[in-house]
Amino acid sequence: MPQQPDPVLDAVPEPAPAPEAPAPEAPTLRVLANVAAAPVASTPIPPYTDCLRLNATGAVQSFVVPDGVTVINARVWGAGGQSWPDYRHYGGGGGFASGDISVVPGETLNVVVGQPGGFGGGGTGLGAGGGLSGLYSPRSQRPLLVAGGGGGSTSFTDGSGGNGGAGGGHSGAAGAGFVPGKGAVGATGGAGGADNHGNRGGRGGDLGSPGGANARGVPGGVVPITGLGGGGGAGIQVPNGQWRGSGGGAGYAGGGGAACDAGAASVGGGGGGGSGFAAGPGVSGGVTIAGSGRYAANKSDPLYQAGIGDDYQPGQVVLQWRVPAITVVPGGPPDVTLRPGGETGYPGVRVRAEEEATGLRRTVRVTLPPGEGLQFVEEGAPGYTLTVWDASGGLSYSLGTLSADGQTLTFTDVLLGLAGAGSISTMWVAVKSTGSPRHADTQLAFQVGDRSSNSTPIHIVDR
After folding, report:
1. pLDDT tens digit string along 178-200?
2. CB 115, CB 314: distance < 8 Å
């Protein structure tokens, strides 16, 4: 009896022996030497006063909006797809998204920074897709900004294969090569590559969905925050377990995974790129830009860090904000006159808003002058109190902590009581004289956030 052929893809007769494919873990991630895992303070672009870079850590990160800040400028780069540089096939570059986000002081924003072939939802495959980078609002439970990840590339020792599609932009690019994955468009995932034998890569996930499984049941990528985006589709495997197609990039929707030609098992395609998004609640001036080939989008941005978002490189999220300017000067109750062992006085300062400062909070520290025989007085229940007379005429009170040497009071999270530009509030503490001073006139030292001033003058007289 004639020998029966071995089964192959979907009962197609076994093809001629093909060049062996590289193992999917063979490429080495070219980690950028100048990118730290932890968030890093950076130089802002005027008129912003603060800037923070959030890098890929492999976990969801949180950003708490500083006091007094109502707008965050965000710039987001997605991760590039996995590359096979030895065979001259490259993953797609990550996309870019930016915008100004209206925020509430003290609220938390969730941050995802994508990695190639790892965190952020890129699809698995011979070359894994890049993860998305983005910002998500727990308050509205909706995405704010998303930059798409690039699709992974496919490469074989015979030189065949295909590059991954770049991440979006409104649309991710399709992969290259035979039966590549399609790019995502808006909130709709890209189709997986498929041949005429039922051999297909996984479809990219729509917004809120993981990437689709390939024809062998291998699942696609999963975005770490449900509702932030869609995962990349999985690339195809042949029955012996070898990968032949690459995964799609994650994004607002995920790119499709690639398949291969069942008649020439060495031939496969690149994964599609994920899409971007810049129209979340409270976002103004939103922009999305697609990557270009193997390179990240918007490299001309002044805050772009070299290498970020290129093929097989992580993404990044850069946040800028402006802390409202204030001026602190002596003021408050009239000049204070004290007698040793006598009455309590209330030296203080005035705080002026130089711009909109509603809701602005700061840590306040008040220090006694050395050698002047002054002492803080407890007027709380019990406790040392900072009184704030706000811009609208209301009074508020904060309890402070006394230093071990009794010289400094610290009040945290003090509402300064300011409103629009030019508004003024006044704050003071209670002190008394306990002995003979070195000088007849002195002052307390107030520090309000990063601003300092002496208090109302204090006159100390004999009994």
Report:
1. 899 999 999 999 999 988 777 89
2. yes
